[in-house]
Amino acid sequence: MVLKSSRISKLTLYIIISSITLLSILIITLIITYFFPIQTVANNFNTARDSQFIAPWPTSALEQEYSERRRLKRYAKSEQMRRMEKQLQRMEILNTPIYDLFLDSNVEISNTRYMTSLEDTAFLWPLLPAKKLFYNSLNPNIFRKSSNVIFPYPHWSTVIEGLLLLGGEEIKATIPVVRGRRSFNFTLFLLTPGNIRINLGQYVWAKTFTEDDVQKRMKLSIPINDTTASIIKVISISSSFYILDASVNHTEHNARSPIRVSSQSTIWNPNKNLLIASTKKITPTANEDDSLNEEVDDEENQFVDEQKPDELKPEEATSTNNQSKQVKKKNITINDPLAQTNNSQIMTDEPYSTAFGYNIVIIQTPKISENILKNKKKLAKISPHLSSLLEQSAVFSKSISISDNANENFRRFIFSDQKYLNSDNIPITKEEINEKKAKNTYLELRKYGYDVVGIANPEAYFYNKQIADSSDFANLKGKWLEKNEWTFSKKNSQIDDRNIPAQGLEAIFKTKSKEISPSITQKDFPIISNFLTGVSQNIDAVPEWAPNQYILINNKNLYIPRTIDAFQNWTLENQQTRFLAHILLDTDAQLIRPTLKDLGKSILTLGFSSVFNPFQIDDIANISFVDRALGHIFDTIKARKIENRTIVFVLQPLDKADSKNRLFATGILKIPGLIPKKNLNFENLNINDITATLLTNVGIPVGKNIDNSQSEIEGFMLEKIKQKEYQEKKNLTQELVEKNKFFKYTMMIKADEKNCASFIWNPRKEKIFGVQANFPVNQLIFDSALEFFPCSIKNKFIQLTWYQRNENSNMASANIDDFLGGNFSYRKNITSLPYFYFGNSITSSESIPFYFDTMTRQNLEKIFLVEEKNLKRSQKILKENFYAIDIFEKSNLNSPNVTNRTKIGFFVTPL
């Protein structure tokens, strides 16, 4: 009997096919969402965590501004216009520091006649040492150092320099007397309740702080009403607090000062629509009155609004004065603050343009493909913000030489000596940056009245990365971190008073109510302890960069969105100041997390070819991700109403090196209102050239080609120099460096009484000259060898120096003998060879692999070379080590592990 074959029903087949299809779609969706997280609908950035399925971004500052305007529509038209007019008035005001408590001198701290606070307790708050010294006027031998106070947030930590004042202490400073309004601005962080008094000349500001104010950062601005006040005193009568980022500010009405455009500029052209004066000098005769000068001043100070909304323009511009007055009474017209984008311009015969006092925003982005930058159509689709910026900017295309280390490039903008910025050379970095203040961009800008903020990961400043891992510690924000907690009985009794319904204007324009600070519990102390342990690691090796404020971002997957959020928050509090914002957007490629929206943009850009280029999809999505970050920064600048006075520079590293394995970046420079010249053919620029150009553009003379330059920043002001002239000077400098390659050899010998023998220095090709010694223990053999006899002088430090020309100093890699220019040898076999110690780090000869034929030049320099300015310090350290070894050997004479030998220190100094 033949069995019938069973057939699958159509319904079953449909179910199987549908299940397979759904399963495949689900797997593909999971794979895509793992690498391309889903964009959140509600941008609740504050509560975001490291989820693989959400990619939260902070709400754009410009969107917040539009949202605020929509909310204002509920109020009367007069109220809307009043607030708009206040914004316009605020745009003209700058609070410029003329005295910085943590930068300038003449600051003293002392005890006063007032009583101390009742309960000064140990404060468990993360602190780092700072450099500013405050002397005691009553006892000059007693001084106190400032501290860097750390404020953790969910996604970053802020570090601000401050000084602790306990009850009964005061700090005073001699402040400059200037015409105009002055104010004392500072941030107060209260530790205990109590009274504080500030003497500002003849006027006194006093305030009593309650328990509600403890553990809160309060920004205070106190007007100095006494125009003759030259001394300021801050007195803690019965409170303990930190005074942070304190300065005396001068109120200026120059936020819309015109740009002075050079007629000789090699980078910029004037904008004819904004030009209000020419190079012609008008000299009025004696018969003319001063009305001409008044007219010119009025013309220079008028505002040129390039973008005015049609509905805000006067309806009858050509009407008579009486008619215009009637129109103004009937129709209230206020210019839109967001529409005023550019300042006026004045043509001058100066060699470079100057945008006096403008803000500077420096942005360093991740690497981008050079091919995409060249394709304008593709770039406009993928990265509209970057494409628009390129059209408005002076572009140094593929011309800025950079390092492969993103953090080192970030540091090059701060400190101009790049040889000290390597992460492997932290102790030298600390010393050099602290001593060479004239090479520090941050300090230069602070001296000229700028507020400086650095927004980066902790490693960029040599901080330990744990300083920003504050998610657990941020939960303690607002709690009482004192050893003995204060009682909360008074707070509870005041709850009903705070909850009384608001009336009148308070009901319409609500103010933020104070929250009650909860007490800490026993489980919070381990979190505090762990955080402090991480913060304190390697803190002695951190140099003093000296910005007003560090913002250290968590180095996690959400690094770039967190950086944008920090910039938005900081500018909201500092939009009335003149500032430098130094932003590091650059991060590891695997930490960039494009969303499905970026993925879709990549597929649409590539079209059908995306099927054959799956890896290029990810690259384009990353560029779209970075472009969104740039868009947030530009929107923030516009929303804060500072677009008209903010210079933007973007350092855009390229993804491929050239044939000589050198890395380059494209520089994008935008000054509002100026028209860039195209085809800038500068080659092999460095970051110091960009720094000198930016600082000179805002009125700070910096650069090798600037006559009145007061800084040691080693760069050229590019607007004053032509491309050919720049290359000639670069080549001349390189030739001078190569011609003057000499080595100074320094040797220190501590001969042992028994185990010592003579030895010889054999130069390779170069002659020996300039031999000096503090004891006669050497002889020169026909200028071709130098022999030493240390046994003749015992128990003394023998110091010798000589010079040689070094022909192989420019080699990328060399044999050790070639690099040093010679080698040591012995006339006879001896059983106990001397100990050699080399360089700053006092590296023992046994630690160096001499059996290698070659070593990299970088390794050789690190082991042997010592700069001339560090030579005395290295010799001192060497002597101390030799003394310590002698004491140990004498106390352990019978130990088999101790062998007394002659000790030799050897230093090579390039000249």
What attributes characterize this protein structure?
23 helices; 29% helix; membrane; 14-stranded mixed β-sheet; Jelly Rolls; 36 strands; Alkaline Phosphatase, subunit A; alpha+beta; 911 residues; 24% strand; transmembrane
Alpha plus pi helix count: 23
CATH architecture of the largest domain: 3-Layer(aba) Sandwich
Count all strands and give the number: 36
How big a fraction of the residues is strand?
A: 15-25%
As for the CATH topology of the largest domain, it is Alkaline Phosphatase, subunit A
- As a whole number of angstroms, the C-alpha radius of gyration is 34 Å
Residue-averaged pLDDT, rounded?
A: 79
Low-confidence stretches: 113-122, 278-330, 486-496
Supply the CATH class of the largest domain: Alpha Beta
- The amount of helix comes to 25-40%
Distance between the termini: 106 Å
Number of domains: 4
Descriptive notes:
- The protein is of the alpha+beta class and 911 residues long.
- It folds into four domains: 10-38; 94-252, Jelly Rolls, CATH 2.60.120; 359-464 and 538-735, Alkaline Phosphatase, subunit A (3-Layer(aba) Sandwich); 740-910.
- Strands 1, 3, 4, 5, 7, 10, 12, 17, 18, 19, 20, 21, 22 and 23 form a 14-stranded mixed β-sheet that branches. A six-stranded mixed β-sheet has the order 27-30-25-36-33-34, covered by helices on one side.
- Helix 2 crosses helix 18.
- The longest helix has 26 residues, at 10-35.
- The radius of gyration is 34 Å and the shape is globular.
